[in-house]
Amino acid sequence: MTEKTSTSRCEYTAAFLLLRLFLGLRTLLAGLEKFEGKGTYSFANYYENMGRMASGITGASFLPLWATKNFAHSIGYLLLALGAALLLGVKTRATLTLTGLTYVGLSFGLMAVQESEGVAWLAIHVIMIAGALVLVQHERFALWPCKKD
Questions:
Q1: How far is CA 95 from CA 12, 66, 87, 142, in A?
Q2: 124 burial class (0-12, 13-18, 19+ CB within 10 angstroms)?
């Protein structure tokens, strides 16, 4: 009986670690790609890309430019910070929740412009984050772990 419980815990820990690593890398690289333009990465590219994104969403939806611009100008930095925190295991429960809310916010923008394919991709990320939140109690490898319930 004890052996089976031990194996299950190990499998849950491995499952959570895989989810955390995947979501951390995906979020970090999603933030990094916002800084890319013509093969180079810079702050100038970031603000140009995010300005275009904000204007495109405002032009194709009911969302005002001030809202889309504020969201767009902060999203890259937020994704970088959340991705790094997930990879390192810093307050994982809170980080997963904030990452999920960030993806919900991105989904809302895509819903407003009726971009169904993008919404579906983000929905997969939200489902994975929900699964990771269920498994977070099995976290064993973290720089700054969550408090146990």
A1: 19, 26, 10, 12
A2: exposed
pTM: predicted TM-score of the whole model, two decimal places: 0.87
Cβ-proximal residues to 21 (8 Å cutoff; 6+ apart), any chain: 87
Mean pLDDT of 1-25: 80
Cα 42 to Cα 5: distance, rounded to the nearest angstrom: 50
**Which alpha helices (H) appear in 34-148, and where do they start and end?**
43-59, 65-88, 92-112, 116-135
Query: Which of 136, 141, 140, 108 lies closest to 149, judged by CA?
Result: 136
d(CA 75, CA 81): 10
